[in-house]
Amino acid sequence: MQPAVLSELRLLSSMQFDSRILITVIFAGDGRLTAKLRRDELLPLGCRIRTQLIMEYAGRDELMACLKHLQVTAGNASLMTPELMKTLCDHALGNYRVLATMAAELLASAAQQDITQLDEKLYLNVFGATPSTAQKRA
Q1: Which residues are within 8 A (CB) of 28 and not within 5 positions of it... i.e. 6 or more apart?
Q2: CATH of region 60-137, choose from 1.10.3680, 2.60.120, 3.30.1380, 1.10.8
Q3: Alpha helices, DSSP H only, in the chain?
């Protein structure tokens, strides 16, 4: 988003010199947004941001805990083999959304094939990775 547009948002969001809030705006972005809000022309907007949630990449243990929680909550804690869970966490790039998307693709494929437990063989079939490619990634 251009700095001029961001500055206009500041003006549109308040009336009577900030004594009355008209709208609430939620920004979402990567580290570039935070850096952009530190620019001189955007400091008036950046100082009005009350709460910031800066998310970093999730570690393997955090991804694994999330995946286990999702399985238990869904009602089948043994849906995936431990090896597949480790593989998914390793290939999720520290991103919960990527992890959930890969797991959903595996689940959809397993449902089509009437597979009751998801394993690394299914992962290789769905994502088309050969064992040598998977080893190169690791």
Answers
A1: none
A2: 1.10.8
A3: 3-12, 31-36, 43-46, 60-74, 82-91, 96-113, 120-127, 131-137
Q: What is the pLDDT along the chain (138 residues), one digit of tens a residue?
A: 788 888 887 777 766 655 666 777 888 887 788 888 888 988 888 888 888 877 788 999 999 999 999 999 999 999 999 999 999 999 999 999 999 999 999 999 999 999 999 999 999 999 985 555 545 555
9, 45 contact by CB (below 8 A): yes
With 0.70 as the threshold, say if the pTM is over it.
no
